[in-house]
């Protein structure tokens, strides 16, 4: 295997993972003269090739050639071999991805909604938040016996993350911050 610098390995590896083996964007921090020098060396070795950029597909530009045209950088078969990847494998993966993108998405069964048990503190919390007036943290603390941090955690974790419910809040001059759930 060819001896590559760390920068060359990063550029080639990233390009091998992108559609059409496009080597751009270059790694963060590689710009200006350093980028030009690294890319020039890689083109000399035959690992990268400058090709016309397809602006309709928003391919990234390496340099502009004028008249609204530009070039992009593509990892060549020699570049793939330099990092130990067989070009045939990459072409096969690209073909599989393209085929998968053209196929209709498989229909998945509807997500199973968790069943809410009645008589639990979580059920009490949900019913209080679904009431037309909503509920404040203090009101929920009184009804459940929880501390304020537990109430906030239950709303953020159990209701929002696990059950996917959208808890809204608004400031009420008389009551303070009031939390609500949309009616079921």
UniProtKB/TrEMBL annotation:
Name of this protein: DUF3489 domain-containing protein
Pfam families the UniProt entry points to: DUF3489
Originating organism: Rhodobacter capsulatus
InterPro entries documented for this protein: DUF3489 (IPR021880)
Origin: domain of life: Bacteria
